[in-house]
Amino acid sequence: MSLAVAALVVAAVRNTSMAKLQYKPISDAEVEQVKLSSAQRDKSEPRLDTAHYEASTGQLILTMRSGVSVSVLARQLKSLEQATDEQLADMRVASRGAALFWDSLDVQMTTIALLQLILKLETITGKARRDGRVKSAAKTAAARSNGAKGGRPSRLKLRPVN
After folding, report:
1. Contact 93, 48 (CB under 8 A)
2. CA-to-CA distance for 72 and 116, rounded, in angstroms?
3. What are phi and psi of 5, to 5 degrees?
4. E-only strand ranges, the chain
5. Domain boundaries in the chain?
6. Long-range contact set of residues 37-42: C-beta below 8 Å, sequence gap at least 24
7. Structure confidence by residue, pLDDT tens digits, 66-121
8. Distance separating alpha carbons of residues 36 and 45, to the nearest angstrom
9. Between the CA atoms of 12, 15, 19 and 21, what dihedral angle is there, to the nearest 10 degrees?
10. pTM of whole model > 0.85?
11. By CB distance 3.0 to 4.6 Å, which of 4, 30, 137, 160 could disulfide with 26?
């Protein structure tokens, strides 16, 4: 969303009928906050400078603003595995380098997500999800101990305050 559009609309508040939307213009302070936040992300997050597809090798070559280049066989990415060479070549860097779009395929990937897929990096939430599935004697014992105490407490029924 461009700043011009963001300046026109900040929030849509639904009426109880949900038929009308009320729009509140963004203040100059809010616009400045968005600009500052965006500038900070540009400095701290990886951004694409260029991206192109090399049909002869099947490589997707990404060049970051830092000068680092990363390449991957494009069809190793799940959402691109069925794409033709022409579709793979028809891409554009968007969102000031924060994303890569293949409009003809209706595929969008953020730069961070692309790097995670290519470099096989694990996110903190992914690690927590995987670690939470681990079964161990300690977790089993803790579950039995908690069950012996009556298990998870039941939900409280709230009464309206007069």
Report:
1. yes
2. 12
3. -70, -40
4. 11-14, 21-24, 48-54, 59-64, 69-73, 92-94, 99-102, 107-110
5. 3-44, 48-119
6. 38/96, 41/98, 42/96, 42/97
7. 899 999 999 999 999 999 999 999 999 998 899 999 999 999 999 988 998 888 88
8. 14
9. -20
10. no
11. 30
8 Å CB contact between 25 and 7: yes
Please answer whether residues 114 and 62 qualify as being in contact, where contact means their C-beta atoms are separated by less than 8 angstroms: yes
- The structure tokens 């500038």 sit at 39
Sequence letter at residue 81: E
CATH superfamily of 48-119: Uncharacterised protein PF10387, DUF2442 (3.30.2020.40)
